[in-house]
Every structure is written in C-alpha cells, then in structure tokens.
Amino acid sequence: MSKRELIEPNPGDKRYVRRDDKGHFTEEVDVGKSLAADQRRHSTHDAGKGQGDKGDRQKH
C-alpha cells in the first residue's frame, strides 16, 4: 500500500492522494474532510507512517 501524498493542484485546494504502481491516483480526499474525520474518531490501533487514514478502518 502506498503512502499518502499531499498535493495542491490549485492554490488553497490541498488533498491527500494515493498512487498505484503506474503513478495513477487511486484514492483522493480533501485535507479538511480528512482532518475533521480524524478529530471525530478515537483510534485504538496504530497505523504506520503515512497511513494515518487507515487506523481503525473497517474492512467490508
């Protein structure tokens, strides 16, 4: 699994993205939404470096 990368395609529009082996985006989330979601949850499991959004994620 790739690390999250912070990009800013337009001034003021920061996003966390993940890329596949070919460099294409596989997942994209706005920074504000990501930080707000992090504050709403209390994690019990540690996630690796660069994998902060994968902490307590349920696998379906």
UniProtKB/TrEMBL annotation:
Full protein name: Uncharacterized protein
Chain intervals with Basic and acidic residues compositional bias: 1-31, 38-60
Highest classification ranks of the organism: Bacteria, Pseudomonadati, Pseudomonadota, Alphaproteobacteria, Caulobacterales
Ranges where the record places region Disordered: 1-60
Species this chain originates from: Caulobacter rhizosphaerae
